[in-house]
Amino acid sequence: MPKFVFIVGGVMSSVGKGVATASTAKILQSRGYNVTCVKIDPYINVDAGTMNPVEHGEVFVTEDGDETDQDIGNYERFLNRNIYSYNYMTTGRVYLSVIEKERNLEYKGKCVEVVPHIPEEVIRRIKIAQEKNNADIVIIEIGGTVGEYQNLLFLEAARIMKMQNPQDVMFVMVSFMPIPSVIGEMKTKPTQFAVRSLNSAGIQPDILLCRGAKPLDEPRKEKLGIFCNVVKDNIISAPDVECIYEIPINFEKDHYGDRILDILKLESYKNKIEDHESFEEWVNSVDKIKKITKTVKIGIIGKYFTTGDFVLKDSYISVIEAIKHAAWYYNINPQIDWIDSTIYEQDISLLEGLSKYNGIIIPGGFGSRGVNGKINAIKYIREHDIPFLGLCYGMQLATIEFARDVCGLYDANTEEIDSSTKNPVIHIMESQKENIAIKKFGGSMRLGAYPCKLNENSICYTLYNTELISERHRHRYEFNNTYRDLFEKNGLLIAGTSPDNSLVEIIELKDHKFFIGTQFHPELKSRFLDPHPIFKGFIKSMI
Q1: What is the pTM of this model?
Q2: Which of 195, 278, 394, 474 has the fewest beta carbons under 10 Å from its own?
Q3: Over the range 444-463, which residues count as b (16 or more CB within 10 Å of their CB) and which as e?
Q4: Over the stretch 221-270, which tens digit does the pLDDT of each residue have?
Q5: What is the DSSP pairing of strand 207-212 with strand 310-311?
Q6: Could you read off the pLDDT of 422-459 as tens digits, one per residue?
Q7: What is the pLDDT at residue 187?
Q8: CA 261 from centroid of its chain's CA atoms
Q9: Do 3-287 and 292-427+477-495+503-542 have matching folds?
């Protein structure tokens, strides 16, 4: 029988359930099991594509074109394998399925109710993910925090699965252990209340992962064991670390993998398999990272990282990780600064500050806010030979800057911002016109993996060392082929196109240290032990 491990959060959000889930999967993978991860988001949204990235974080696009939560990216980076749409669900997606079944008379006249039919649909989806992945163990992360109304139905689904197969289902709670600065002592009471909230849903955690600024000590473990009814050996210390890839190594210090296997009555095959060798490589790589002393300074110019007085990085988490993977490959630590593009609209003299960076990235985005600031920055970067990487919207804005300042098309623009521009160097994709006309926005962009043919004279061809590649997309607008000859005549290289040559996928500038724009999102395919070729080229250009 397959096994199921549910991971829930206690005390507060952003406690690290995603990387805890990914780390749990990595550890069990290293013991010889085929492991997959499922994410349950408690939002009414059908997918993450319509959510504001400042509020929810990055939208991670899967190989098969699903717009998902950023945690799916963590699962891919830790397991080093693709996660597909059937491994992701939201409240909206679950309810939509149940309603569609009711409309199709699939319930055969029954009165369709929230319980049991919603939990049954959740269970059905979990089991589909297990079957599609042929997984021995499925790790299911339930979004939100225990005690919230939004995730009660998912907890009910987990309770039912435990009731039906008690030997095959277990629960891990990731909870926060605060250390109030005035008191100076780690407090267990919030976690005790979180466990009681979980108990009220009919669930008892088997393991506690205790997050905190410092490692958990023995007195705290004993107290949690008594008041949370958890075996002391099943209370795992999860202190803050600088590198998320150290988390599974930290968990193993408390024999986390052994505890899970004991609870699920499974054996460990770690001495017989290739995946364990991969974990040893993982450990060695983390150890190597800790010894790195050299740095490069990288600026990311965007608009999705400020919320009030706080700067959040979750909107660009895959970009950050891809930078790290590539930098570590060259034994360098990246120092990243977040730059609000609107400052370059208010005062262009501030552009001189870009010269202190070894490289600049302009990531994806939507809308008009801050766009002119990004275009001003790209002009400075191009003219001062600073290594540049433009991702999706960043590539499109680099095209606009080139049209205006090199080709003399001073009014060049994208139809996304100015639908009546006389020189739409970026225009709406033909396949997207009807979607826009009928306001069909959710899940309707060009999404998922598409092939790309590389120009043999391009830097990208050298970086990939192959002619045909596959990369993931998320956009409605594209390079306008009407201007292709003009751009090429003025020194812009079309470095990659769709195999039929109809869509421009990559642009490069000749006679520049490193200036590449991609219509796709290469960051989505970068892995800890397998950095992406374009990011490796970007970092190498700075060294």
Answers
A1: 0.94
A2: 278
A3: bbbbbbbebbbbeebbbbeb
A4: 999 999 999 999 999 999 999 899 999 999 999 999 999 999 999 998 86
A5: unpaired
A6: 999 999 998 888 888 888 888 888 999 999 999 999 99
A7: 95
A8: 28
A9: yes
Is the domain spanning 292-427+477-495+503-542 CATH 3.40.50.720? The answer is no
Q: How far apart are CA 251 and CA 174, in angstroms?
A: 12
Largest CA distance in the chain: 75
Residue 272: band (very low, low, confident or very high) from pLDDT cuts 50, 70, 90: low
Q: What is the amino acid identity at position 169?
A: V
The identity of residue 137, as a single letter, is I
Three-state secondary-structure class, residue 368: coil
Contact 83/39 with Cβ under 8 angstroms? no
- The CATH T-level fold of domain 3-287 is Rossmann fold (3.40.50)
Rounded distance, CA 449 to CA 521, Å?
A: 10
d(CA 418, CA 311): 30
- Catalytic-residue membership of 392: yes
Between the alpha carbon of residue 392 and those of residues 1, 364, 459, 518, 541, the distances in Å are 44, 5, 18, 6, 21
Tokens of 435: 């979607």
Helix H segments across 343-469? 343-346, 371-383, 393-405, 433-437, 459-464
| Phi and psi torsions of 176, nearest 5° | -100, 135
Domain parsing of the chain, residue ranges: 3-287, 292-427+477-495+503-542
Closest CA to 536 of 397, 392, 387: 387
Tell me if 82 sits within 8 A of 76, measured CB to CB: yes
Catalytic residue among 37, 210, 228, 392: 392
Active-site annotation holds for 523: yes
Mean pLDDT of 269-290: 80
Write down the H helix ranges in 71-180: 71-79, 91-103, 114-133, 152-164
Question: Are the CB atoms for 176 and 211 separated by under 8 Å?
Answer: yes
Which of 407, 471, 523, 532 does the annotation list as catalytic?
Answer: 523
Please tell me which residue in 325, 473, 521, 532 is annotated as part of the active site. Answer: 521
SS3 state of residue 516: strand
Determine the Cα angle at 396 with ends 393 and 401, to 5°.
Answer: 125
DSSP 530: B
Burial of 64 (0-12, 13-18, 19+ CB in 10 A): middle
Output the DSSP codes for 242-283.
Answer: SSGGGHHHHHHHTTHHHHHHHHHT----TTT-HHHHHHHHHH
Question: CB count, 10 Å around CB of 434?
Answer: 10
**Residue 166 in tokens:** 């008690």
